Protein 1
Amino acid sequence: MSNTAVKTIRVLIAKPGLDGHDRGAKVIARGLKDAGMEVIYLGLRLTPEQIAEAAIQEDVDVVGLSCLSGAHLGLFPRVVDLLRRKGGEHILVIGGGIIPKKDATPLKEAGVARVFGPGTPIPEIAKYIQENLKEKK
Amino acid sequence: MTTDKGERKKEFRTTVDGALVKKVYVPADGPADSSLPGEYPFTRHIMGNGYRGRLWTMRQYAGFATVEETNKRYKYLYGQGNTGFSVAFHLPTQEGYDSDHPLSAGEVGKTGVAIDSLRDMEQLWDGIPLADVSTSMTINATAPIILAMYIAAAEKQGADPSRLKGTVQNDILKEYIARNTYIFAPGPSMRLVTDVCAYCAEKLPEWNSISISGYHIREAGSTAIQEVAFTLANGIAYVQAMLDRGMKIDYFAPRFSFFFAANTNLLEEIAKFRAARRLWAKIVKDRFGSANPRSQMLRYHVQTDGFTLTEQQPLNNIIRVTIQSLAAVMGGCQSLHTNSYDEALSLPTEQAVQVALRTQQIIAEESGVADTVDPLGGSFYLESLTNQIEEGARQYIEKIDRMGGALEAIRKGYVQSEIARSAYAYQKAVDSGEQIVVGVNKYTTKAAGDTNIFEVDPSVEKKQTERLKVLRQERDNARVKQALEKVKQTAASHENILPVLIDTVKTYATQGEISNALREVFGEYREPSLL
């Protein structure tokens, strides 16, 4: 990839599963937009399939997943898995919500790069994204 | 505006509307409410003797895994003398999917108990006489179905439905605004809400047919004024919808109940409850012409504000919950749920749940705040805040009226974007350090290791889907099919759907199947993109 033009980072924020707590997802979508990224807020009550499909179609660099119902261990890895199978292995997947610390390890092993807990400042998330983008092969 | 030398901040502001807080308040800052507790407009309390007669109900919201586990927990509580239950349903039941639906994967038994059919409901209450307890059910889009199951289960126990006591949340408007467990579009949803209210008014006179909720609006990021305004605006929409069905205000309004959050800003929150009571009483009396004081009394449940719980230094949350509970009690709530200190980490552990309940008991038994009614009434600052919140909420309601009411304001996305704006402003204030959250952006410590957390047994999903499979084999499927046809016909008509739903659940049709029948008639709602 050439480094002559700075490409705007494209982020997809989505809520997999049935959880309706969308305050965090919406606030982060808005915050990342204010940080200069292009943000697509896909909404809630989505299957991992719908999220992966949208991520590929929208050609995003980052997928941010939010879940507060406790269903993250099943849902987040499934999104990563589908992305890999659809040619989106370069997409950085991050997550947030009510996620016990001990679940961060299995999530990381499954390809969720980082889990941000409650109380994380948005600039910290933006910085992490900027520093950890993966290159498209 | 002069700034006193030596003050620790350049300016002090309320969180209700950002108005400046004065150094000291004097009588000229606004008249104190001159009514007595138990008198219109009920600013000081709906009952003349406050908690001197009966304490508020300590109603802890609980439910997890399968009906067996939850039933065991309820039986234990019942044995301990607890007669007030508050059922948490898992998300599939709240959104009309059976436990074996693909979207339910990973969610079964997580945020509450899994109820798919009347069989589950019967087992949930096994050994607990529904005639003798009061039950609050947090259920909205599927409220008519779940209430039908509750009535059918009670009938099977031999209970007289007209004696049943409890509450069904049944507040769909705030689902579009904040909580997001809607299924159908606002139009047909309002019809289902009023079907429940009308049925309860006729057949379940001791049942609260709706719990109009500001809690979730606050949790989604609103200010205190917005919480009062949007909740009461929704209340107005429900009252109007009932009047439009030809019902008289004093026939149904006495069974309308409310649900608010309690935040940590102690005096603002006490003022909020007083302002909400006064404003609702005026609306019901002046706008809708009620003559019955019971219709005008704003009765409400409170839950401490879950959003304020921090993952960092979780024990600090015990203090937050204590302050919030004091606000609820000094504000005059009818029932209270206290959150557990570990809920920013996971579902609560038993120890944390116990501390939460003990917090209420200490306030009730040791603090003395429940010994006189409206103990802070007459405080110059509190009375000024009460006036300020009432006025701010009144202006919002006027604006919503001009837009054509709450339903239209929600359809236009007005209410949602007002809340999103407040939520983002709060986050920016926290990120910049302007708003302090102890342990998060000040007085921070290195993250501790894993605290003890609660987990739902992963075998629950398999157990529940197997139960469902057995049910589908054992029941009379021809009867189920016939009943579901009847549901569709009734949904397409103007008839109250409750009697048909009660017949239908008795065939052991599942809530997912019944929801699907309704989806065929009503369609499904998708949230408009508002970012």
Note: Chain A touches chain B through 36 residues (CB under 8 Å).
Protein 2
Amino acid sequence: MTPIHIKKGMNIPLAGAPTQEKKALPLTKRVAVYQEHAGLKPRLRVQEGDQVKRGTPLFYNKKVPDLQFCAPAAGKITAIDYGPRRALQRVVIERSEQDEAETFTKYSADQVRGVAREEILKNLLQSGFLALIRQRPFSRIADPEVTPKSIFVNGMNTAPFLPALDVAVQGHELEFQAGLNALTRLTSGAVHLCLDGDAMPASTAITQAKNVQIHSFSGPHPSGNTSTHIFHIDPMEPLDKVWTVRGTDVVLIGQFLLSGEYPARKTIALGGPGVKESACMHYDVGLGSDLGEALAEKLESKEQRIVSGDALSGVSLEQSGFLRMTESSLTVLPEGREQFFLGWMAPGINKYSRSKAYLSGWFGQMKKWNLTTSLNGSYRSMVLTGLYDKYVPLNIMVDYLVRAVLAHDTDEAIKLGILDTDPEDFALCSFVCPSKMDIAGIIRRGLDEIEQEGI
Amino acid sequence: MKFLLNQLHKSKHLFEKGGKLERLYPLYEAQETFLFTPPDTTKQAPHVRDGLDLKRTMITVILALIPATLFGIYNAGHQYNTVNQVADATFLMHMIQGLIIVMPIILVSYIVGGVLEVAFCIIRRHEINEGFLVTGLLFPLTLPPTIPLWQVAVGIAFGVVIGKEIFGGTGFNVLNPALTGRAFLFFAYPAQISGDEVWTVVADKTNVIEGFSGATPLAIAAAAPQGVDIVETLKNAGFDWWHMFIGLEGGSIAETAVIPSLIGAAILIGMGIGSWRIMAGGVIGLVAAASLLNLLPGDEYKAFTQLPFYYHMVMGSFVFGIVFMATDPVSAAATNQGKWIYGIMIGVLTIIIRVANPAFPEGVMLAILFMNVMAPLVDHYVVQFHVNKRQAYVKARKLSHATS
């Protein structure tokens, strides 16, 4: 199988990539479940002081009442935190000695292939694992009413940093296949598994996975983004619906179906310049782990930002935060508030830039850089043109798409291909933008607007 | 440097919300970020950002303009010393004389334009934009060295206010602000910016070097009668190809700076700031249009039609204009294909205006301004073409997927 080669894009030369090693961490004393989905209306099923088992539903979605979110550990609910406008933010649980678990239906790996679609869906809704499956266009939680034309499983990790599928599947080969089998029941079309052609996984459970179509992509990031895969394998028309899921999450779904219990642990990647070099690797951690405890003595001493997910499109977490359900990596970056004298004049050998206006643009592309959270400039109007297109391999004129969204011209935005995209596809555009524009945020607003208006 | 930064931060509260000088915050911000890189961190994803910002981008353009500016200064002094027969003038004397002529023009442009720019930023409560640094230098370089300073002030004011600020400031302008200012002067005060006598500073009209007319090569070429050998005519007037390529002749301050502008082009393209597509398009357009005109029967049309393209390239302000003016990303076409068309059309129009239009000896400024206006139209068609192709791709892929 020859990989589909992606030319556009770039790899962010971020230091501190996690190694392929995996270590198990002890379960933390406290765990939490975040409400991490935009547009979801949470309603609580529990209150402070309640005892819960692993898998007990904590809250459900008012819009789709069957979709519930469950406790990742048995224990007592010690806090229910609210964010702005009294919106539920998270439910905190103190782990108890006994690890009691709710029982769900249990299947064998082969059985899953024969289970009805409704039954699989029911299980995924009950456990909340349906929230790991996203629906295009608009990138929302999969709608159980919809039968997608195909499902894309993303087995790549080109963004800095995501967990390697190889490491996550290690020891869970059966579960991975069971998860894939379950996905095949959900779609009328094919399940596509997309792998990294430049760094093929070693495990045959991945490279010879059954009941799916395997594709491979090579080239720089975003060759590992799902939009890239969809666009090059089976592009969408405006009314098509496609589901997408990360390969590492398929393992979790498989674990849930085969054990009939809510899984207690998952594989995450930890990396970034803010992490001690010896600690940059994969970990087997408890779901919803307390970061303060899990990351103790793994971070550098300066002020750090902990990003749930990758540095390009993750969400920053408070230092006292917990591991989120939808992300399986933590990227730690030093906060870059330092001010340098006459920086605009500096030759730029110490400052990373993709552009050739700094010396690093000429000589620093092969190095790894300790990038910080510095904006490296100030917000300005859009001035340079044609820069973004080099980083989006979806045949999209980004300048014009951004302008169409800003002008609320949704028809034009659809024609220009916004429905083929996810905000994460524009992260590199924001990265290189000299005007420091939030391109990904603009695209998110455009998608929201189209979703509200209807296509 | 820590001390300086602390002093800055100490006065910061005066300019922040609720401070006494709150309205002047843009001034404070400009000063702080001029001296030190801004302290801002990313608020959302992506959490890391590239080192390039707009300040650096604009500084790179200034850097690319420095050779042309220095050459313009040298040439103004050189012309002065030559025409006024200053004895034993050395390189240093040329530079000093050039500075005396050119510096006031640049300073007036920066001060008047800068004050207006800052005033608009304070009223709008915007941060001060770096774009003006480039406009403020580009504008004086397009003016004849004899320009009255009050006209410099009026011109840059027009360029900044009408050319840019009324549209919303940097990033929103339709026309190149520096060229808008120049075009305003060109039509409002033609006596000081056209003809034969404005291109060199003459101290005493009775004491000029023998044979000095002040006419530029373009004027000479345009005036050449039907049927003569145009290259020979230029040569007789002292303008052979090498002479014009080196550019030590009368003209707007940086107009004749062919070699320094090429160095500027190398900097802009090398650093990825200027669009090579526009520059290459301009050259292609100019070569094509000039070569087509060469095909006309020489004895029936003006001798100017017979001038080879490589002469056109080194005459007038073509190189300076296509490198620094046409590539202004805000007023140029924004799509890659659009940039080619935009550049080619500038080259073609330059030749048409130069050769066919009796009123304007030089066509670069008007060609660029005209294409500034046309750029959105060019882009519109490029985008429509793209949309159609994109939809066709999705359909084709879908079909092939369904059958496979």
Note: Residues 49 and 91 of chain B are 46 Å apart (CA to CA).
